[in-house]
Amino acid sequence: MTIGIDLLSFSTSRYFFSLKSLANYRNVEYAKYYSGIGQMKMSVFPPNEDIVTLAIAASKRILTKVDDISSIDMLIFATESSFDLSKSAGIYVHHFLDLKPDCRVFDVKQACYSLTAAIQLAKNYVSAYPESKVLIIGSDIVKYSEESSGEPTQGGAAVAAIISKNPRLMSLEPYSSVYTRDIMDFWRPIYKNDALFDGKLSAQNYLESLKITFEKYLQKSGLKKEDVNYFCFHCPFCKMVKKAARLLSINNVDDTIIYNSIIGNSCSASLYISLISLLDNCPSDLTGKRVGMFSYGSGSVAEFFSGRIAENYRNVLFTEKHQNQLSSRSEISFKEYEAFRMDLPVNCCYENAGHVFLKTIEDDKRIYEILKNQL
Ligand code: CAA
Fold first, then answer.
1. What confidence score (pLDDT) does residue 345 get?
2. Which of 105, 136, 161, 262 would be 90's cystine partner, CB 3.0–4.6 Å?
3. What are phi and psi of 62, to 5 degrees?
4. How far, in Å, is the centroid of ligand 1 from the Cα of 18?
């Protein structure tokens, strides 16, 4: 029996802010953002969109290809943008997806690594209960303070995946290697809206963690570097992926960063958006190919693992939906960008990514509603 990713999709905002405009307002050469950092656009989120509404949009899409949703008996929500220290964001999603009550729901956190932790937990669960399916979600909205060096790397998105036996997309291999190190490279105290970071230290630790985990992965698996056909790297900004590829002396990563270069950093979701980008955009048939996955969460935990792409994987892709979603986004002005960043009330109505929007916050309770055209 193989276990792995049966279905995979992402959802992001209907709005973007162009890094050309940001460069203009910040008096920075656009070439720094475009070639120096590797980013062109960032997804930005109106106040009625949050990690829950994005997660529902991504999950609803994959559930259209699940025959029996009652086989989902666990939902793991990975995020570092949580708005509640107690209640799991996953419970709102469970409600709007109409999942059965005897479904275990909880959130996990470890910066951008958390969705990989969720995958490994889900994989072990399915190996114990092969008839079960696990819905895993990574959803993050990334904000750095204005005029900081991190500002051009902001973004956000949600990825949803079903982990099951006999997966139609990618089976997970048993080999993986993990590296944990206590380091202050990126953090967000609970009283802060914007993440704090030491950019240079984080980039250095990312690369050191990659070197350590990849060497250990090869050692444990007995594989050679050439046995890994494609690589997906955690993508806080696309230049980081190019540096990772340079470190391992590989060169075929362009297809993996097409989506991230116009979405921005989506933390827990970002590595899996790279995988979706590869699957959607690589013209070669990937059947049977081994994909190496490098997950990095500041703080820090890193993991290198791999999977093999299933036969007929193209039958379960959502390529057109992803491409339409990105090409139909509307550009916002600098004034709107500032209002969105601060979650200020806005005068006009903004569209949502999917089925549910955040209507209001009353008595500190978040009230979500199904969009009228979805009822
Ligand atoms: N034209 C072309 N290139 C230019 C340029 C110009 N006019 N001006 C500068 N550049 C180049 C620089 O040469 C540099 O290239 P190299 O990296 O190849 O040397 C690049 O643009 C960046 O410029 P700086 O070195 O001046 O860097 P910066 O101070 O602007 O910061 C950053 C860049 C470190 C990535 C910053 O965006 C940052 O701190 N981001 C947040 C932290 C982060 O994402 N860390 C990544 C690892 S941590 C992680 O992965 C977890 C996570 O998701 C956050």
1. 63
2. 105
3. -70, -30
4. 17
